[in-house]
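Hey, quick one: can you model this chain's 3D structure?
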Amino acid sequence: MQDAINKVKLWFEKFGEAWASCMFCMVQGDLTVLTFNHAIVASKTGTLAGLAMVVASFVPWDNRWLGVFLTGAFTALADSIIHAEGFPMEHLATGVGAMLLCVIWERNKK
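Sure thing. Here's the predicted structure for all 110 residues.
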């Protein structure tokens, strides 16, 4: 039962990192233009990235930097799948943003 709770917590954590990064990158940093539609698109990206991380968590790894890298890679991939439009390299910027949020989150856990 505790393992299932940990997977749900992981999903929420990765959803939040991907969602926040996607929201910020979609509007290119101009938070005054955020709309409900941006939140919906970011939610789809976060959901997909979070699910990918939960699936990846079934493969054991001891390196936290691998988790940071996978967070960014899955977020970038999810962003490119959910919406292809956007500024050039937006998907990579979204992935890097999620990686940065992951590093910040990991540092504050301890």
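One thing worth noting: The chain has a mean pLDDT of 92.
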